[in-house]
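With this grant's support, the team has encoded backbone shapes as discrete tokens. A representative record is reproduced below.
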Amino acid sequence: MKKVYLLLFLALGVFAFNACTEESVGNRLEQEKMAQVLADIHIDEAIVQNMSLGNTDTALVLFHEISSQSLKKRGLDSAMVSKSLGYYVKDPAAYIKLYTRVNEIIEERGKKAAAKRP
């Protein structure tokens, strides 16, 4: 299972660093929207990890499919998210602020989900 975590982390890292080209502020997603997208991605990743799939390839394919569907729901593609993430990676203060918001969103969604349970 550690291999799944490592591969998913590496995939996200490659996704982020692949986008480290010079981007203007106007070509990136606004921070709140980017935080919502990243929260979706991390939740998708957790869903796949909790499935206890024995095959890492299967887990990666499933994660890719689920995250692609999440992006489509928001009218985005992976290239736009990748470019935007590349912008935030270059600015440590903006990156920290972004991920602080991502954590808040995940906590909020967790509380809402817990409140819906009987």
In short: The helical segments are 2-17, 31-49, 56-73, 78-90, 92-116. The CA atoms of residues 14 and 43 lie 19 Å apart.
